[in-house]
Amino acid sequence: MTTDETLRQQGITREEFEAIRRLLGREPNLTELGIFGVMWSEHCSYKSSRVHLKALPTSGPDILQGPGENAGVVRVGDGWACVFKIESHNHPSFVEPFEGAATGVGGILRDVFTMGARPVAIMDSLRFGPLATAKNRALLEGVVAGIAHYGNCFGVANLGGETQFDASYSANPLVNAFALGLAREDKLFFGKATGVGNPVIYAGAKTGRDGIHGATMASEEFSESSSAKRPNVQVGDPFLEKLLLEACLEAMATGAVLGIQDMGAAGLTSSSTEMGARAGTGIELDLDQVPQRETGMTAYEMLLSESQERMLLVAEAGREAEVYAVFAKWGLDAVQVGRVTAEGRFRVRHRGAVVADIPNAALTESAPRYRRPQRPAARTLPLDPPAGGEASGAAPTRDPAADLLTLLGSANVCSKAWIWEQYDTMVRTNTVAGPGGDAGVIRIKGTRWGLAMALDGNGRYCQLDARAGTRLAVAEAARKVACAGARPLAATNCLNFGNPEKPEVMAQLAEAIAGMGEACAALGTPITGGNVSLYNETLGHGIQPTPVVGVVGRIELSAERGPTPARFQQTGRAVWLLSGAAALTAEERRQRLGATEYAAAVLGQTWGLPPALDLERERALHGVLAAGRERGWIESAHQVSTGGLAVALAECCLARRAEEGETARVGARLTLTEEGDTAATLFEESATRVVVSCAPEHAAGLEALADAAGLEATRLGETVEAERGLEITCGPARMRLSLARLAQAWETSLGRQLESVISPMEVLT
Amino acid sequence: MQIGVVVFPGSNCDHDALHAATLASGREAVPLWHESTDLQGCDMIILPGGFSYGDYLRTGAIARFSPIMAAVAQFARAGNPVLGICNGFQILCEAGLLPGALLRNAGLRFVCRQVHLRVESTATPFTGGCRAGQVLQVPIAHGDGNYYAPPEVLEQLERRQQVIFRYCTAAGEITAAANPNGSLHHIAGICNAGRNVVGLMPHPERASEAGLGSADGLQLFASLQPCR
């Protein structure tokens, strides 16, 4: 008799158990129950999100592989394809930040090279609680060190990403890792077990007891005792991963490999069943052949282990020796552990007995799909500014210069160089735009092509309106890519939410996916894959809904023309604002201000609605940015987002990173037309806006280009010598700040927050 | 000039070194597998950056025992040019082909960024094409680049002008702020007594094309030609 306690340990409900019995036509044994537990977990089965995800646009002329494989594939040109995906490793990173983040990077790298692509770039989207607490500082330091350790040793350039802070992430930090690789279009590999009778080969690290039930852990909320889950976190070895990469690519080049998949979540089980299911075949495994790190492992442990750096290959019968020779060269285990069968079943033998025998379909397409109940959450934050508050107009006028400095130093705005200086951003010598700009850009050696990429997500916007917030995340990621001068091609997503069994959370998830679909369709960036991370809750407190989007774009590079930089390049340039933002009424303006970083970091409040977004004008803006660069007009382009126009302008004046120092700074003298009041003009975050600079003689052409695209182009002023600083006139307000002061606020803030000593108050509490 | 690049299993800058060396020499550089002892008739050997054998114990500690290193040591002792970049520098120190050691960075964190180097001596096969005092912009990317040697060794290095590169400002000044890792005497690179073996922590191969931010590093590979 299977007890409730046994089911609970496997994360299976009583109803699901009955379904398993019906599918098998008998009682499952404990090993089989464990297999169903991981394969039917939220993490592996997408049971709460799948019905909604089906509505996303996933195809297009350049999409070679959409969702359903280990990673998406997009055509670049000249026979090249890029392979990319983003995935979360949130739960492990909270339990053990260093290893959790490191293995998150390892997992996404394997997803890319299992497709036959050499990884050339990674990025990360990170969320933490406020740095005022030692615990959050330790989480950030651990996560960053883990990402650095794995990526640097493996040898892949980290192009940055984005990091944001909110109290809701204190007990649920988010670590979303993105990776992109390059492959030849005609040399792609897929996770398919083709050819009945072909050998199934296990390669890479030995199997141990680490990470058992990792996928199940990732599908549960956390409680006080979550640190007891530390043994569920895998331990990574980037050196081994590097060997595995080289060996896999070399083995693929022999022509003897027919299918390959990494052993990620749910390890041997998911790789075997998914490879069988995709090819309409089955896999029979003999666990006695599996290389083991520990003695006495049970079938249950081996099947559920999430030991890292392992691959499952199907080779052409008779050519096994070629595969073994390659892995031997790299000092790795490679042994036959099974064969492809015609029956479409996952059959496992151990010590002479069959210990599991399950139809693949029962584990994959017959996995539960829930249309969980939804209930739109009651608004917890007001629509209008709090009465008597500063934004209601009742408070005395503020000092805009002081507010700008506060914003530049706020955790969500300040330079993240402290983080990405720990990452190798240049290895493989492809990086033509590293971290710190709007998008990261790599070149493809020997071609004229480059790829620009950017990540974005905004929990605050999504908390106020999940659908609008997600549309904005897609738009911002695509806009960052467009600022570099690239044309957005495709997207990948990571949906980080709370407990989907709560109707309010489920409603947010469904709304977010709907908004993502709208934006991706409108901006021409189909979703090629990604991942869903639910149950980001601890003690019942969930995170802000945080869909994260990665967008990849294509750019033509030449010796004369690299990607467009974000920062002002020289003095004597015209500074323009290109905008597709809608005109706002006074009431709308007040409401939209409530979602800004200004409201949160300066006024200490949040209310209202996220910025409005017109997707058609957004797409038109992307076209103008690409065309303006191709004609040689646009010299710099930086999008307006967190912190609003004043922050964007200040960032344009500063160097990408501190050590480029004063020589890279450029001053500016600008006049802004006041709309609403000074604070709104300076700090509101209307979307679809980009600050560009150009030579004065190209200004008219650029203006005409924007005009033809239905956008407004407004001349803000000109760039001047760095010594003259940033001068902004906005209605009655006039501020002049030295660049050294702006730099002091923006460049050093994160380091100061992280390296501050523990305050006595903290010790007391 | 035939350049060879040693490939340890954990080398991850081997492709970059091959690319830059080919670019500079105009002749396809060749990879040299760590388990081989055949240097394939190369005129110059590069030990590239990376994590040779994982380097969990100590950087370069295992690499020095690899078969190829015996051949490289013999090649070096015969007076042929050997360049160790980053992990390659660490390996040369471990192998005793260069004095001193590379410790954890003073900040205890991995650091990746552009730095400036002052060329302290042009009397090596790699800096022959540079001017003394010339400032090069070349990136670093390492966790263990803090050069250390006992006082008497340092004193000897200075006296014999074996310090080849020092960290400096863009204007060529040697300041504490320009030293990214705490290296003694701001040392970024040194040579052996015979001046044919040079090791440096910065990555000249990453500064070999203008599109990458700097082409200053190419001179180190290109310098070789007039020297033979």
Structure description:
The complex is a heterodimer of chains A (765) and B (228). Chain A is α+β, with helices and mostly antiparallel strands and 765 residues long. In chain A, 35% of the residues lie in helices and 24% in strands. Chain A contains 28 helices and 28 strands. Chain A has a seven-stranded mixed sheet, sandwiched between helices. In chain A, strands 23-25-22-26-24-27-28 form a seven-stranded mixed sheet, with helices on both faces. In chain A, strands 1-2-3-6-4-5 form a six-stranded mixed sheet. In chain A, helix 18 (466-483) packs parallel to helix 22. Chain A is globular, with a radius of gyration of 26 Å. Chain B has 228 residues and is α/β, with parallel strands linked by helices. Chain B has a nine-stranded mixed sheet with strand order 2-1-3-4-11-10-9-6-7, sandwiched between helices. The termini of chain B are close together. Chains A and B meet through helix 8 and helix 10 of A and helix 1 and strand 6 of B.
Which properties best describe this structure?
heterodimer, A: 765 residues, alpha+beta, Phosphoribosyl-aminoimidazole Synthetase, Chain A, domain 2, 7-stranded mixed beta sheet, 28 helices, disordered C terminus, B: 228 residues, alpha/beta, Rossmann fold, 9-stranded mixed beta sheet, two-stranded antiparallel ribbon, 6 helices, globular
